[in-house]
Amino acid sequence: MKIILDEFEFVKFNEPMSNYTAYKTGGPADILAIPEDTASLKKLLVVLKENQMPTYVFGNCTNLIVRDKGIRGAVILTNRLNGIEVKDNIITASCGISMAKLAAFAYEKGLSGMEAVSGIPGSVGGAVYMNAGSYGTSMEDILISSQYLDEEMNICSLSKSEHEFGCRKSFYTDKNLIILNASFVCTHRDKKDIKKDMIEWAKKRKSSQPLEYPSCGSVFKRPVGYYAGKLIEDAGLKGYSVNGAEISEKHAGFIINKGNASSKDILTIIDFIKTVVYNKYKVDLEPEVRIIGEE
After folding, report:
1. Distance of CA 95 to CAs 92, 125, 177, 184, 295, Å?
2. Which domains are assigned to the chain?
3. Is 72 a catalytic residue?
4. Annotated catalytic residue: which of 112, 138, 170, 218?
5. What is the pLDDT of residues 63-118, one digit of tens each?
6. pTM of the model
7. Which of 15, 115, 246, 288 is catalytic?
């Protein structure tokens, strides 16, 4: 397989996923590729498919837990696919551009709508995939269309209504499709007002979230009628730790890596939280993080 892939300069072998995940944990991927354009991506996908290689596509790995023995197969990261353009009040961004850069671009163009999501750490593709949101604004509120690559390497489009958005899910969730880009509708607004709101949202995040530690943000989806973080806090679990992993004292919805955690430590805490919260409140907490790889 290495001989077949020698033509791809952006491919690495036996690469630790801890170098890429937000948690700074995770074992090695057999193959890791970071293509620089759609043509290279398609060419690589064809070779991997011909060789029946299991393939996984991720953005900035900010919502991902890779188990400690790693991933058997190929991992493709899209963070070099980062084109962005604007026409009137519509911004079209490639899948790999970060939400922070998207929001900064909108600000520079005097376009409003991205302020609340400017702190989402992931990529555009990942955000659309899971209908990411922050402070009352989700992708379903601002997205108008997207393009994706299907299993036959065809480029296809989806209108807003076809995305089937739900709580941290979309049409793309659990499908073998690759989001290429997404278009967002904004409104023109004074840049000073946009900047003011972005600063306020940033202050709120800093005061309420443990941004100084590696984490995947909120670990659990919001259960109907509840807040996951409050359930965890009310269960008395703040500060609970397993080796280097800990339920944040600042925000109980976050599990943080205090320096030497393994993925197993984090997953052990996730299972513990689910058990305690269910036993206490009869509420099933569902992780919103993606978990992949071998134990």
Report:
1. 10, 4, 12, 13, 29
2. 11-77 (3.30.43.10), 84-193 (3.30.465.10), 209-292 (3.90.78.10)
3. no
4. 218
5. 999 999 999 999 999 999 999 999 999 999 999 999 999 999 999 999 999 999 99
6. 0.92
7. 288
